[in-house]
Amino acid sequence: QNCADTGEFTWNLVSRDLLVPMNETATLSDVDEFVRAGLTPEASEVIAAPRVGEARVTFECRVTQQIELTDVAGRPSGAVLTVGEVVMVHIDDDLLVDGIFDTVRAEPLLRGGGPTAYFGIADGSRLDLARPRD
Question: Is the pTM of this model over 0.85?
Fold first, then answer.
């Protein structure tokens, strides 16, 4: 709801240390998520929406579209997909190796199948694949 009201949002990378606080933010829109999750609001540089101070990667975004999702029969699902333009990026310097983002070092969590499943990225899971040449 906040995205629709303000036209702005921040996307904060969830790393292992932020898993439980992230889960606490899945609450009603009238609840202060920062207080509930014990997170620190930090001022953004370009937009008014605060970012999560503990997040090691944050994108400041302006809403470009909000799409009400439906099921295959066209009935509203109750979910809204928000799409935004990234207007500022914050990345902790220690996550960059020779100017390249080190995904393993960031310890990002990914949503898995089902309502409670999450997965992490670890050493040994990287796959390198060169693009085909025409």
Answer: yes
Residue 124 lies in a domain: no
pLDDT one digit per residue (tens) for the chain, 134 residues:
889 999 999 999 999 999 999 999 887 778 899 999 999 999 999 999 999 999 999 999 999 999 999 999 999 999 999 999 999 999 999 999 999 999 999 999 999 988 899 999 988 888 889 999 98
Residue 81 sits in a domain whose CATH number is 2.30.110.10
Count CA within 13 A, CB hemisphere, residue 78: 0
Look at the chain and report how many structural domains it folds into: 1
**Cα separations (Å) of 127 from 16, 28, 105?**
21, 39, 16
Nearest to 48 by CA among 17, 2, 12: 2
Residues of the domain holding 73: 2-93
Q: Does residue 48 belong to any structural domain of this protein?
A: yes
